[in-house]
Specification:
Strand content: 35-45%
Strand order of the largest sheet: 8-7-6-13-12-11-10-9
Structural class: mainly beta
Number of strands: 50
Distance between the termini: 54 Å
Number of helices: 10
Shape: globular
Largest sheet: 8 strands, parallel
């Protein structure tokens, strides 16, 4: 039997205030004014949606930064957020190093080159599973209290800020640069320093001041930043830990997080339901998210493989829970810890990997785009495309909301301004699956009456399914979308693009198309359709894509017009160039590359030759051969040193020929380590997750072409201290709990093709 899920969205328009955030904002050289109201950022009074992805240059090879930034843009991000680790840029008191991986200025300039905003998170303390949260080790030996209002500590922070300020000079919004938000401190009072990592188990920690001293400390940091020339339009701070102290009034954007699988939970996460988090400054300050879990840090005792829907649903329920158009993922792009000769490994605790900070992120520590990358892309695009409508809408739970994450019932919420709405659906249990729903009926009570839909078909939501459905959406051309069971994706010239969020056809109910003869008796025309398009009026096509097409889609200015591009492979858009790439096993002849675009450009070329356009429903499709993967498999030598150790070499091969080489390492054991066989240096590590370890061997091509790369697997084991007859601990006895063996290494290479549009 059909059961109505009701949302009372009457009288829900937001009241915006713009007179209480005088310390926020700035004007760029073109005269565009960046400001904020009590709910969101604005440019010249228009809402500014933000989707940020955390990508830390100090944990990633500098020569690959640009590829990483372009990957985040491809995922629908509009901003890159990045910790800056103090201990790396000032390894010794007063000696600064902003070269190589520390070149924050070059990283910011790359963000700007590709149209991305930049949010440096400059500490002085940053948790990040990093050694002492990025505090320099020499602070422990100074006569001061770190993370406090001690003048001696603040003086050193000021020196760091002043030097960092020189690097960021001229890069702020008001300079025409990309820096809009600068975060100060991180998890104050919440995250410990963990000096024990460096100085042993008796070293003390200080988590920061509480009460009024908390507020004073944040005021001191902001003052020091401004005095250093760090003139950010907006300063931000993390919102967890603030229960022990209030942020300074109206001078900080308070941002939040939420991780579906940060720790093992026997039950479903609270992030699978709407309304499961408090926001104490809601309605006073914008609510922003800086750390929606893009994965989880792997530890020896906890090794999650982040499910794509963990990332998607965690972000979707936050977006439907509170009035925000600012999402941020941590991590969006994985990385690896650098190694410092002066103070060694940079991991925070022994249970973390020495090098890997992959995080199970949507983009791996080697640059691979994983399933969560694609699963979250339509949501990111929804925020940027429909954020202006969402910005004026209040968050409203259903009249009978689900509050228990383990209750087997469809979770719903609405964002509405009383005249239009978006309905958020989530049917996902991250530990215990929820049952599929059939014949779902939704009711949204608006100021001018109820909207009940679907009107003529049944709405089914599969187990694990989620969607955002529009109500009263203005499509332009005099047409209003009264309701739909498809999720909005993009608005292009003459096209409104949606996608099917689940199985079956979708329904569109439209008003304002009577000239086409489609209106029903109540002035609303109802159309049920599958993938493809149909025309309303004379100037508007409504296009329905599959979920897979939507997940692989991007919207960008291409060949002089805003277009949607999609295809089954990795797509990177840069100017008028569409680069298509994929991994292909060595020795396999690759299938041709194909991709589609809406609307089609006038001409597409590959290597100067025109590529023929093929119709693909409402899209235009282009196909070209993919190059053969290099090198030949016969050029790679795999030497088995023992069941748990392999030596990989490419004798006589030029390093450049190895640049695109990847390997999938299938092994049994506790962890696998990778070494430069010529120097013995550790260059990679992986805790066993039950799946092969995918490594970009091309990053280590010079080692491969030289002495080689050694893989070494260790078994699961426990060690117990043993003593002699006098009771003195002299040694340890190790008990092995499982085998250590490398089963196979499968080689592949990244192949790519560039299509030039004009």
């Amino acid at each position: 039997m059909t059961h109505d899920i009701v949302h009372d969205a009457r009288d829900t328009a937001l009241t915006l205030r713009r007179d209480h955030l005088a310390h926020w904002g700035g004007t760029d050289p073109q005269g565009r004014r960046l400001t904020a109201n009590n709910y969101h950022f604005e440019i010249d009074g228009e809402p500014l949606p933000v989707v940020a992805g955390e990508f830390q240059p100090q944990r990633y090879p500098a020569e690959e930064w640009e590829q990483g930034i372009l990957a985040l843009r491809s995922a629908g991000c509009t901003m890159v957020s990045s910790y800056v680790f103090w201990n790396l840029v000032e390894p010794r008191p007063g000696e600064f190093d902003f070269t190589g991986g520390n070149d924050v200025r070059r990283f910011a300039e790359l963000c700007h080159r590709h149209g991305m905003l930049f949010s440096p998170r400059i500490g002085p303390y940053n948790n990040a599973e990093f050694s002492v949260g990025g505090l320099p080790p020499w602070l422990y030996g100074m006569p001061l209290t770190e993370r406090s209002n001690d003048p001696r500590y603040l003086e050193l922070v000021g020196r760091y800020y002043r030097r960092l300020g020189r690097e960021l000079s001229g890069l702020y919004w008001q300079d025409g640069g990309p820096v809009v938000v600068v975060q100060l401190e991180n998890e104050l009072t919440h995250a410990p320093n963990d000096w024990r990592t460096l100085f042993g188990y008796t070293a003390t920690d200080h988590r920061g001041p509480t009460g009024k001293d908390f507020t004073t400390h944040m005021e001191h940091l902001r003052r020091l930043a401004l005095e250093a020339g760090i003139t950010a339009p907006v300063f931000s701070m993390t919102g967890w830990g603030t229960a022990t102290g209030e942020p300074p009034a109206d001078t900080f954007l308070v941002s939040y997080g939420g991780y579906m699988d940060l720790h093992f939970r026997p039950c479903n996460s609270g992030l699978t339901v709407f309304g499961s988090q408090d926001f104490p400054f809601r309605g006073q300050l914008p609510v922003a998210f800086c750390e929606l879990g893009g994965g989880s840090p792997t530890r020896a005792a906890y090794r999650p493989v982040t499910a794509p829907d963990d990332v998607l649903v965690g972000a979707l329920t936050r977006l439907g829970t509170v009035e925000t158009i600012m999402l941020g993922y941590y991590m969006m792009h994985g990385g690896a810890n650098p190694v410092r000769g002066d103070f060694g490994w940079m991991t925070k605790e022994p249970e973390f990997s020495l090098l890997s900070y992959d995080f199970g992120a949507p983009v791996s520590e080697y640059g691979e785009r994983r399933a969560p990358f694609y699963r979250t892309a339509p949501l990111n695009r929804f925020v940027t495309e429909f954020g202006p409508e969402l910005a004026r809408m209040r968050a409203v739970p259903s009249t009978d909301p689900v509050t228990d994450p383990d209750e087997d019932r469809l979770r719903t919420a609405v964002r509405s301004d009383g005249t239009s709405a978006f309905v958020f659906l989530a049917n996902y249990g991250n530990r215990t699956p929820l049952g599929a729903r059939d014949e779902v009926s939704l009711v949204v009570r608006l100021d001018d009456g109820d909207v009940r839909f679907p009107r003529s078909t049944g709405l089914s939501v599969e187990s694990g399914g989620s969607a955002i459905l529009p109500v009263g959406l203005d499509l332009g051309h005099g047409v209003t979308l009264v309701s739909a069971t498809a999720q909005p994706l993009a608005r292009l010239r003459g096209h409104a693009v949606f996608f099917r969020p689940g199985p079956g056809d979708v329904e569109y109910a439209l008003r304002g198309i009577d000239d086409n003869g489609l209106d029903g008796p109540d002035g609303i025309a109802t159309t049920v359709t599958g993938d493809g398009s149909f025309t309303v009026g004379e100037t508007l096509d409504i296009v329905t894509l599959s979920r897979e097409q939507a997940e692989h889609s991007q919207v960008t200015d291409l060949a002089g017009e805003r277009r949607l591009v999609t295809g089954p492979d990795d797509l990177t858009l840069d100017g008028d160039t569409v680069t298509v790439s994929r991994l292909v096993p060595l020795g396999v002849e690759p299938e041709p590359f194909t991709w589609s675009v809406l609307p089609g450009p006038e001409v597409v070329r590959v290597a100067g030759a025109v590529v023929r356009e093929e119709p693909a429903g409402p899209l235009s499709r282009y196909t070209a051969p993919a190059p053969r993967p290099r090198p030949d498999r016969e050029k790679l030598v795999v030497e088995k040193l023992s069941p748990a150790r392999l030596l990989l070499r490419a004798p006589g091969v030029e390093p450049d020929e190895l640049a695109g080489l990847w390997a999938d390492i299938d092994y049994t054991g506790d962890l696998c380590r990778m070494f430069d066989a010529g120097t013995g240096a550790l260059i990679g590590d992986d805790f066993h997750h039950g799946i092969p370890w995918r490594v970009k061997l091309g990053r280590f091509r010079h080692a491969l072409a030289g002495a080689g790369v050694q893989l070494r697997v260790e078994p699961r084991a426990t060690a117990e201290r043993t003593a002699d007859t006098e009771g003195i601990l002299l040694d340890s006895r190790e008990e092995i709990h499982g085998p250590a063996e490398i089963h196979t290494v499968r080689f592949s290479a990244e192949v790519r093709q560039q299509f030039i549009c004009g």
